[in-house]
Amino acid sequence: MLQRDRPKNIRQAVPAMQRILQRFWPQIRQQRSLLTFAGIGLLTEVFARLLAPWPLKLIFDYILIPETHNADLDWPILRSLSPQGLLLVLAIAIVATAGLRAISAYISLVNLSLAASRIITKVRAQLYAHLQRLSLSFHYQTQSGDLLTRITGDIERLRDVTVNETLPLLINTLTLFSMVGIMFWLDWELALIAMAVLPLFIISSTRLTYRIRKVARQQRRRESAMAATAAEAIGAIKVVQALSLESRLERIFSSDNQQSLEDSARTQQLSAGLQRTVEILVAIATAMVLWRGVILVQQGNATPGDLLVFITYLKSAFKPTRQLAKHMAKISKATASGERIVDLLEIVPAVRNKPDAITAPPFQGNIQFRNVHFAYDPDSLPGRLTLENISFQARAGQRIALVGPSGGGKSTLVSLLLRLYDPLAGKILIDGHDIRDYQLNSLRQQISIVLQDSILFGASISENIAYGISHTSSDSTSPRTEIRHGSRSKELKPVSQTDIEQAAQLANAHDFIMALPQGYDTLISERGSTLSGGQRQRIAIARAAIRKAPIVILDEPTVGLDRKSERSVNDALTKLTQNSTTFLITHDLRASKDFDQILYIENGRMLEHGTHSQLLAQDQHYAALYHIQSAVAKSRSTCECLEEPCLHTP
Ligand code: ATP
Fold first, then answer.
1. pLDDT at 238 exceeding the cut of 60
2. Whose CA is nearest to atom 24 of ligand 1?
3. Closest Cα to atom 1, ligand 1: which residue?
4. Tell me, what's the pLDDT at 574?
5. Which atom of ligand 1 is nearest to the CA of 604?
6. How far apart (Å, rounded) are the C-alpha atoms in residues 537 and 507?
7. Residue 464 and residue 457: Cα distance in Å, rounded?
């Protein structure tokens, strides 16, 4: 999804740079005053560089070897000064030129660094916000390590290159053109000799720069793969250790690591080769100019001072070209990074707000699925649809159970209600309105969800519960201090500790939280792994409860819990779902017996639909499954009564 054809040579890299500049133009424009100062500093520095050899010429021609004067080149104003006076003036001029150059270089560097840091900070924030809004289908298809490399490594490289390479590149290019112009003005014949090596320079630098870019891009890809392997292994460390996958993953990582090392060595080798080539070309040009220049001085057609200025310019003009090659190589590398960022920014989220989307009003909770069709990979159609022609209606406050074999499409169906994906055909209506007409945030804020393995964040318990209330997009403060209180409430209110504790009490979590050494301030380690499964679920229920949402989705919330935890969690869920339209996905048909509607879903189709007794009377799939479960439960002679529903009727 993120791979596109890359520029194959330096000519193709220019549009790539244009594309990057265009994409970041709004952020660049915001820094125009800093960039203007940087530009003035830059021009002044180039001017100071051009002035630098002239005092030396005058010292040669007027003080050291005055007899070689050419009358045409006399500067009457300097003739009026004594040699000592002239020397003093020229010595001061040397210091002043160096001072001017130092100050202007400082101004341009400081202003450009600040502007670049600000631009990159904004781009990074934009990229992070964009990533979070990209649809689930994108995230499932993309390795998280690759995304992390883009948001950290690629962005940092772009900042580094803007400051450390673009500024010198601009100064050097301007210096080069100005000096070449002055060289032609001084002596076109000598200038032509000096320029003879230019075609060679262009050919070798273009070829080598292209190869450097190619290897660099390959290296970045490998670094992304390494980051992805590491992120995957660390994220699933329990599974890795349990299945003894360490050595296997180490082998994959080492292979990428080794190849990355080889790519890095190759890049260094090519860069070094590029710089040495330029050095040799400069030496050839200098030798040719000196040879012809000395003849001109001997013939009296130029002064030694002229030759000195010419040679200094030649070296100064070529010295930047030597660095030009280095900067071009680095900028080429950064172009690949910049394109990776732009590629990501240009991905349009599959699920997004319509231009005329409205804020959803507080929902009653009437839900209707109308001929809904869905496939995760529409491109592979015609093939099997994940959901096919699903239609049903749920009145506000009703409890709907989704049952059926694994992989039937139950979780997919509720994902569509949350608009994690959009249907291929058909409509989902809440209170009679197509959910695509609502702004995503305002829709999702009114739906609470408790999953089988609820993810908690690396923050305190209080904060984890408070995360249940969504921020507005501009919020940047802690969820504890400024978050929307209740989706039905219009105004922003801070979430109080009382709200948090009430939600925890509803979720049967208050007592165990208070028993922890730091109570509500206890920091939960990443993914909540320091708590038991039942405790994690109850915090997740508290997080759902604080939302006070009119629609609640429970996706197998008690799977994997022991009997005691299950009872406690079920009790909390019963309280959570009072007065809400509730969807429960379950494989345990005892849990859904008393529900208002049961949807039996298999292979993406709703094969049966009705109450428990209606479905038993139909004596088809649901009834068969129920009888099997009953028989298994009886044969195990468990003390639990099949007639006892797990989610109590309020
Ligand atoms: P279970 O009871 O095991 O949770 P389910 O009934 O909830 O299953 P879904 O998770 O909705 O079933 O999956 C329905 C089908 O869609 C399955 O074939 C599954 O492999 C496929 N599927 C689920 N998620 C994705 C995804 N992100 N991308 C592609 N296919 C998916």
1. yes
2. 412
3. 406
4. 81
5. 14
6. 9
7. 6
